[in-house]
Amino acid sequence: MLFTGLEHTAIASPNPRALAQWYVDTLGFVINYEYDGNYFVKAPNGAMLELIPSEGDAVPTKMKTPGIRHLAVMVSDFDAAHEDLKAKNVTFLTGQLDLKGNRLVFFEDGDGNILHLIARPAPLP
Q1: From start to end of 1-125, where are the E strands?
Q2: 54-100 tens-digit pLDDT
Q3: Pairing verdict, β 48-53 and 9-13
Q4: The pTM is what?
Q5: Could you say which of 3.10.180.10, 3.40.50.10860, 3.40.309.10, 3.60.15.10 is the CATH number of the domain covering 7-54?
């Protein structure tokens, strides 16, 4: 197999260090690598984000603006994770949703990027 998966996704931030710390403090990621103002954060399952310095002003986005729209965060206990985020005063964009047995809720990271918790009764094929 030539292409084996995604290694990381990059997010441009006006303050990559602060956003990296948000992922550490809020979602339990670790900063696993940094160089020249760029920070890699790694989730417990090995997924990584690269947080890079942004240039220019942010463009307003909504849930379905063209382009990458959200990052889905897997959880082992949806209710506990939802309550944890509430206690950490994250900004929620929706209430809890149940779509075909999948439980989710949309929220913002420290820069306003869209994320959502996802709990699936069975993994996608």
Answers
A1: 9-13, 30-35, 38-42, 48-53, 71-74, 97-99, 102-108, 114-119
A2: 999 988 888 999 989 999 999 999 999 999 999 999 999 999 999 99
A3: parallel
A4: 0.94
A5: 3.10.180.10
